[in-house]
Every structure is written in C-alpha cells, then in structure tokens.
Amino acid sequence: MTCWNxxxxxxxxxxxxxxxxxxxxxxxxxxxxTIGLPRGMDLDVGALERQxxxxxxxxHPDRFAHADPRERRLSLEQTxxxxxxxxxxxxxxxxxxxxxxxxxVDLEREDGSSRGSMPLAFLEEVMALRERLEExxxxxxxxxxxxxxxxxxxxxxxxxxxxxDALRARLASGGTDADAxxxxxxxxxxxxxxxxxxxxxxxxxxxALG
Amino acid sequence: MAYSEKVVELNERPVNMGTLDKADPNVGTGxxxxxxxxxxxxxxxxxxxxxxxxxxxxxxxGCGSAxxxxxxxxxxxxxxxxxxxxAISNRDVARELALPPVKIHCSVLAEDAIKAAxxxxxxxxxxxxxxxxxxxxxx
Lengths: 210, 139
Description:
heterodimer; A: mainly alpha; Monooxygenase; 7 helices; B: alpha+beta; three-stranded antiparallel beta sheet
C-alpha cells in the first residue's frame, strides 16, 4: 500500500511513517496488526488495554473534525477496525475462535457443513443434555437446570483450555502441526455447544425472574 | 429479523415432532449439529423394506429456522423413496421457508440430517444382511 498523501509505502501501522497522515487500512490486516501486538493465544492484557486506549485517542474522529474528508473517513474506518479488534482479542473465547480462523478453520461460517465436524458420540451427549434441560424447563425446576449448568461450565472451561493448548502448539509449529489444528477445532466446537447450553439456562433464569 | 409466514406456521404447529424407536431395524437416525451456533437436530425415518419412507420425526434444539427446516423435511420425505429424499437440497428448504442468508445453515442442517438418517438406515440393513449371510453359512 502507498500513502494517499505522500506516496511512500505504508505498512500495518495506522499512520504513514513518512508524512504522519492517517493511512488506509491494509487489506488482510489481522486484529493483532490493528492493535499492534504479536499474534498469539497468550496476549499481554495490560498491553492490549494500553494500545487500545492510545490508538483510540490518536484515531478518534473528533481529532479529524477539521481535517480533509479523506482523513475524516479514514479516522472512522480505523476506529471501527480498532474497536472490533479490541472486542475480539480481549475475550479469550473469541480470541481462540479468531486464531483458529486465521489458521484456516472458520467455525462461524454460515454455510459450513455439519457433517463430520463433531464426533457422533459428542452430539449424542449434547442432545441428551438438551433433552434433560427441556424436561427441567417444563417442570420449572430451576435448581436442576442450574446444577446441570455448573457441570457444563466446568466442561466448557476444560474444552477452552484444551483449545488454547492446541492453538499454542499450532502457532509454535509455524502453522504446520495439522493434528494440533484439528484438536483446536474439535475443542472449540465443544466450547460452542456448551456455551449454547449455558445461554439456554440463562434464558430460563430470566424467564423465572420474569 | 422477522420470520417468514411458513417458518412461523411450522413453529406454531410442529407436526412430526417426536421420536421413533432407535432400535427398530427399519428406523434410521440422523444426528447433526451446527458448529456456527451450537444447535443440534435429530431426524428419524422409518423406511419400509420397499425403500419407501413411511414415517419421519424430528427433535431440534435451535432457532425457529432450524425447527422449521426440520419440520418441513419430515413433511416432505413421507412417501418418498430413499433416493428421492437424498435428492432434497438445502436450497429447496431455504427457498420454501424464505430463509435469509444468515439462516442458510439451518437448511444445510436439515439436508445433512436426512443424509445421516439414511446412511444410518443403510448401515443397519447391511449389518442385518451380514448377519443373515453368516447365519446361512453356519446353520
């Protein structure tokens, strides 16, 4: 990419190093690039907060209220991108899903096929859990639902830990460890189904408070 | 986002919701999940020895579109041959229910569930045929 103002080359940084004008967001920039931190599962949360605050101030559209239209637009774009990067990276679950996507496995894809994605035994277990929860809901037995939620929460955290370990191994291998990538995908799949279950219990609690 | 009339109708009147006997040799069970949302769908078909689908039941834990997709295909497949049921595509389901792009995966789930149920039925039948062959050679 070249700077729209001085034509020198720009990188992932939000400002042109040569003339200091706001740069366009490079296509393919990752959230890690946007926030200016190295790609990894274990993010320095303090550094994330600092980078976010600093960049938010520098990029804030108010600072460009009197700049030319091009910079005003870029300030908006950069701020939107920064907010999205911060939102995804600060949450360990979202960060893990995002890293998995950067490694080429997108569990968010709407047209994703369901075949072969999770072992049948796991899906059977999820079905049984959801059926038990439905019974508890029909019986208005909030205690039973919350007891199940406690167990599922433990398993969700376990699965997240396994996903994080697998992602670390994948990143440490420089993107070559196919087995680690598969383990990460399966573990995050489990996280997704357990999270869905916990959302259902939360909805039931809200109903009960009604 | 508003659901289409057909989706609402199938949710208010969820015909064919329920279970068939998993142990019945003529029942094929398909269990699929959506990795994008964490929902699960079970579709069961009772298939006669003539290859005609006699009955279909579903149980879906998911959004209204997922429930409607599974209910719709249970209505469609009854009376079909296995090959006709295998030809049902998620696009047919999405079109009939007027699903928006973010709900296309619900129709994919329904198509996959039919295929999984039929695969399960075929596996059962092969196992039965295998046992029968063994019984014949070892009277």
